[in-house]
């Protein structure tokens, strides 16, 4: 009996020992799992230490964004924004440099040289490069290499870089709608040294246009040598033009694995007015509040783009449009924001992205170049569903909201005041030649007096005009 008890005690001790061993192994295994987890995101974050971000984040380029946001990057590549500025090659140049490759013009009468003479600007290709032969700042004919093109859709301008780094728009542009060359700040209206000639330093591209044609611009002017080493991260309107510099966001996503949302601007999450300002930084006419330095070098006094502005900031603190107020005529390009601010849409909080896509999937299948969410009047009617078929709306059952409320007036873009422009305004101005209107874009005949349009529209209104209360009270008709 005693031996049996001893054996039982020994077995109990062995069981306790086994349990202790198993518990220790389990603890070690748990520790092992913890170690494995630390080799992942946690270990990297721990190794990197507390998140440290730049006070002034830098531009990194749209290619870096593609690593994570490849869908958005792919749809952005289908937009005209990505093609705002491109290197000059056989796939980007749409102007005719081979056959219809010359532009003849008469030198303006105010020119101190060559006044009244007929001159020729010639475009040609040589050794795989594109050139424009024209009169430069020294009054001599020279061949200027086209180093980049601006635009790919309606028109195209051509950039050249001088030996000292000055960049200028050459004095001809290609009109893709008519397939012809037109003057652009050349001898037809200006001359060297006058201040607005294409090669005058007051027209330096770095200060006049660059901020809205590239992303991550660094002007890099060296005063001692009076030269530029201008660089940028992206040609065209890249991701960071609308989302802001991305270096901190890149760190957050690839090193610290935290604060991804806090380190980048998402315009869709901004208050509606600040969101519209992201578009307005370039779709706006005016001048910067910032002065261009080194005015003794003949540079323009102000930047033509909002120098210093970043998405999410208040645009009105960086850009002054009071010198060029919206007139509702689109007399100059890219003043949609100026006009929108004066519209009832702006008062109601209806902004650019309410109507226009940016980089949504399938954007390349949109049936219009304006990248609107729906085509033409279909988009308008999706909100204006209660519009009754009365007066002018009654006689335009198959008409277009855009043609009447966003007519092309003086310039190439549609008006963004969304106001109907009566033909009576053209009549007062002396004719359609001096003032376009919403009707003459469709109803225009040389031999038909403008007054006919005014009276026809007036008759359409009166036919549907409700009778005033006094008429009902007296029992008399109108």
Distance linking N and C termini: 129 Å
Shape: globular
Q: Using DSSP, what is the number of strands?
A: 16
From the helix content, strand content and strand pairing, which structural class follows?
alpha+beta
Mean pLDDT: 83
Number of domains: 2
Helix count?
17
Strand fraction: 5-15%
Helix content: 25-40%
Based on CA atoms alone, the radius of gyration comes out at: 33 Å
Model regions low in confidence, pLDDT < 50 over at least 5 residues? 24-47, 325-331, 469-478
- Major sheet attributes: 6 strands, antiparallel
Fold and architecture overview:
This protein has about 475 residues and is α+β, with helices and mostly antiparallel strands. The chain folds into two domains: about 60-340, no CATH class; about 375-475, no CATH class. It has 17 helices and 16 strands. It has helices spanning about 1-40, 40-50, 60-65, 70-75, 205-210, 240-245, 245-255, 270-280, 335-340, 345, 350-355, 375-380, 390-395, 400-405, 425-430, 450-465, 470-475; strands at about 85, 100-105, 120-125, 130-135, 140-145, 150, 155-160, 165-170, 170-175, 180-185, 215, 220, 225-230, 235, 285-290, 320. Strands 1, 6, 7, 8, 9 and 10 form a six-stranded antiparallel β-sheet that branches. A four-stranded antiparallel β-sheet has the order 2-3-4-5, with no helix packed on it. β12 (about 220) and β13 (about 225-230) form a beta hairpin. The termini are far apart. Residues about 25-45, about 325-330 and about 470-478 have low confidence and may be disordered.
């Amino acid at each position: 009996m005693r031996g049996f008890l001893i054996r039982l005690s020994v077995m109990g001790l062995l069981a306790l020992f086994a349990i202790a061993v198993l518990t220790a192994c389990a603890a070690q295994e748990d520790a092992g799992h913890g170690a494995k987890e630390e080799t992942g995101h946690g270990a990297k974050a721990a190794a990197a230490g507390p998140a440290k971000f730049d006070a002034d984040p830098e531009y990194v380029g749209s290619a870096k964004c593609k690593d994570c946001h490849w869908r958005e990057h792919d749809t952005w590549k289908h937009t005209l924004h990505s093609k705002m500025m491109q290197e000059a090659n056989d796939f980007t140049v749409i102007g005719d440099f081979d056959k219809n490759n010359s532009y003849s013009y008469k030198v303006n009468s105010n020119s101190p040289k060559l006044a009244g003479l007929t001159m020729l600007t010639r475009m040609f290709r040589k050794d795989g490069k594109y050139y424009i032969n024209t009169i430069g700042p020294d009054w001599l004919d020279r061949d200027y290499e086209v180093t980049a093109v601006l635009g790919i859709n309606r028109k195209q301008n051509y950039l050249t870089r001088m030996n000292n780094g000055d960049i200028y728009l050459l004095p001809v542009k290609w009109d893709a709608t008519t397939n012809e060359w037109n003057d652009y700040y050349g001898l037809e209206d200006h001359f060297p040294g006058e201040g607005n000639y294409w090669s005058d330093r007051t027209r330096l591209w770095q200060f006049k246009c660059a901020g809205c044609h590239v992303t991550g611009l660094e002007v890099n002017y060296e005063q001692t040598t009076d030269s530029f080493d201008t660089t940028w991260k992206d040609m065209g309107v890249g991701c960071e033009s609308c989302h802001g510099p991305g270096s901190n966001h890149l760190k957050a996503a690839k090193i610290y694995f935290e604060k991804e949302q806090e380190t980048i601007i998402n315009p869709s999450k901004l208050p509606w007015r600040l969101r519209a300002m992201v578009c307005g930084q370039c779709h706006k006419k005016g001048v910067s509040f910032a002065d261009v330095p080194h005015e003794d070098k003949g540079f323009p006094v102000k930047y033509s783009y909002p120098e210093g502005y970043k998405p999410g900031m208040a645009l009105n603190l960086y850009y002054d449009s009071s010198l060029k107020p919206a007139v509702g005529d689109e007399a100059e390009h890219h003043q949609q924001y100026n006009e929108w601010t004066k519209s009832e849409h702006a008062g109601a909080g209806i902004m650019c992205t309410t109507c226009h896509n940016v980089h949504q999937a399938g954007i390349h299948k949109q049936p219009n170049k304006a990248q609107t969410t729906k085509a033409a009047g279909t988009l308008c009617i999706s909100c204006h569903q209660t519009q009754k078929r009365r007066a002018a709306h009654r006689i335009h059952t198959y008409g277009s909201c855009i043609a009447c409320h966003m007519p092309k007036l003086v310039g190439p873009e549609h008006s963004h005041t969304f106001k109907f422009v009566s033909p009576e305004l053209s009549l007062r101005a002396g004719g359609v030649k001096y003032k376009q209107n919403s009707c003459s874009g469709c109803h225009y005949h040389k031999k038909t007096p403008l007054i006919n349009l005014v009276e026809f529209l007036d008759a359409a209104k009166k036919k549907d005009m409700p009778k005033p209360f006094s008429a009902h009270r007296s029992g008399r008709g109108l």
